[in-house]
Design goal:
The chain has 205 residues and is mainly alpha-helical. Helix content is 83%, strand content 0%.
């Protein structure tokens, strides 16, 4: 129980802090509504299983010890976030009357929203370091595999629950309308945030 509470508290602090997952769910919820935000949140939550899987298999230790391999993951993550940011900036210049009126014309397919959330979380090198810390400092090697799997399921569900709540709040028409009235400025701002996060991953790690 003490181990679980430590994991739950560390995860709460990590998931609540602004980062790539937060930025992507924020953007998808405002542009596509609650449904798009929920599918993105489901993708983010499912990305947790990827981190848990390679921690259980010991791949996380390999990533941490092989500098070039971890650097490759960082560059892929940064490139993906930069691509999302560039897409947002492009959309900002193409924003039309619908966005100015507070109505989003974006229609996000569930599979695309899910994939965006999954890739954003799964490629995040900071998430890799977080789960590596959990599986090397908090979770002992003697912890049964079934318990480790339980931890993984909890972390995935808790992550989804947090971002699902955020999606419902941001997907409300009053909130979306307020943000979308900024039109291209909102889209450009989110693009800039994603580009800054990409730069942060490369420069800071």
């Amino acid at each position: 129980m003490e181990q679980f509470l430590t994991i739950a508290m560390a995860h709460l602090l990590a998931v609540a802090s602004p980062g790539p997952d937060f930025a992507v769910v924020f953007k998808q919820s405002v542009n596509g509504g609650t449904r798009a935000g929920l599918w993105t949140s489901a993708g983010v939550g499912s990305g947790i299983f990827l981190h848990v899987a390679y921690c259980v298999l010991g791949v996380a230790l390999l990533l941490a010890r092989v500098d070039w391999l971890f650097a490759l993951v960082k560059w892929i993550a940064a490139a993906y976030l930069a691509w999302l940011g560039a897409q947002a900036l492009r959309n900002a210049w193409q924003a039309g009357a619908a966005a100015e009126a507070g109505v989003s014309s974006a229609v996000l397919a569930p599979q695309r929203a899910f994939a965006t959330g999954f890739l954003t979380n799964g490629l995040n090198p900071k998430a890799t370091l977080f789960f590596l810390a959990l599986w090397t400092v908090v979770i002992s090697p003697e912890t049964p595999l079934q318990v480790q799997i339980f931890y993984g399921v909890y972390l995935a569900l808790a992550t989804f629950a947090w971002f699902a709540l955020l999606s419902r709040l941001l997907g409300r028409q009053a909130v979306r309308g307020f943000l979308l009235r900024a039109g291209r400025w909102f889209e450009a701002g989110m693009g800039a945030v994603l580009l800054l996060l990409a730069a942060q991953i490369v420069l800071i790690g």
